[in-house]
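Collaborator request, handled under Task 6.
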Amino acid sequence: MAFRDLCIECTEILATEIALFIDPFVAVYNNPEIKIREKVRLCWSLCTLCSQVPEEELPRYLSAILSNSCSKLKELSAKPTADTADHSRVKLELGMINSAFHGVSVPHTAAEPLLSLLQEVWEPLKATLVLWSNDESIIEELTKVYWHAINTLGPLFDPFIESLVDMLCQCYDKNQYACLLESSAQGLLNIYSQDKPDLIAGMLQRISNTTFLLFSRAMSDHPDIIQAFFSLHLCALRAQPQIVYRPESNCKAVLVAGMTAITMQEYHTVKEVSRWLIEFISHYPNSVSVEEAINSQFSFLITELLRGIGTASPSSTVEFLGDIFTPISRMCPDLLRETLAVVLAAESFPTKHISAAEKEVFARGVMRMSHQKRRLKVLIKEFSLVCRGYKQVAR
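Structure tokens returned to the collaborator:
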């Protein structure tokens, strides 16, 4: 830990003495008594120093630091089946490889040695992804390697992009891990959605179709995947909304899943779904597919929002759910007014604790305060408290 901090603070000074650290590092790497995380930290520290060595010397130092890891990873990935006895060793070698892409900070024009490293380990990484596809911790380590390689190599990574998208989608088809959506998929979307929209749209569609199948079986059992899934779609809306506007993106199915998810009990899940809904609704005037999806599900959307604010969602998430009313009231005020009147007319909805008069006050307040976000938040909080049996609605 101390050596890592020194490398961060004194990179330029220590880089001149990097050759002195190679042999001790190899000794640490081969010492079974030292923990994996300490070995990876030391490797990352040395790779950080490599950022300051002359460009022509970088390949030599990278080879000295990582040659053993590359050889071991090739050996482990060539096995016919995943052996639990190899688990810690695989994590170690992936951590070492990741340290190079994460620790070495050089311009893309000087990243040829890192490109050579990626070319050397690409097939072993691919084989490891297949071999350990049932182990989420290994897959998470792999996604870190890919993510840092994309960031460090920049345009040099382009020849690998199609293969990586296919590999990740195949892995996600087999095992739905949140880490596949959180790092690699989001990274690919943010970086390549402008230059390769068809490829990224296809990736998003494949991921969505697989996720919908999972949700149809047991949506409530996977709050982490729901959170990662809507975080991915939020990235898509912000990075390249035209991908989402495509008919094949199935906006309606994503919207229905989101409306179902806002009544879940996990704070961070509801928060992320709410953020996506706010962004999605804000695109109402820009896209026919978004407009059609919202119009066709508008009554269901308002019903689920009120049910969540009432009692279905945790009280800690009411603020996020209330924020969704702001874009709704701005984008489609007439439809909101009509739908609120119909939905709130139902007896004992959202709960038996709120009267018809109080619901009428709430509906009028929502429409009146559409451009007063703070007052609207207070109104919705008061409405939620009444629904939960605590106090009167403030008029």
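The cover message to the collaborator said: "The chain has a mean pLDDT of 89. The radius of gyration is 26 Å. Please let us know whether this matches your experimental observations."
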